[in-house]
Amino acid sequence: MGWFEKTIMRIGNWGTAIGAVFMSAIALIITATVLGRAFRIALPGTFDLVETLVVVGIAFALVYGQLQDRHLRAEIAIERLRGRVKGAVESFLGILNLFYWAVLLWAAVEVMLDKWSAGEETEILKVPIIPFRGVWVFALILMCLLLLIRLFHHIKGLVKGRVEK
Question: Does 165 map to a domain?
Answer without folding.
Answer: no
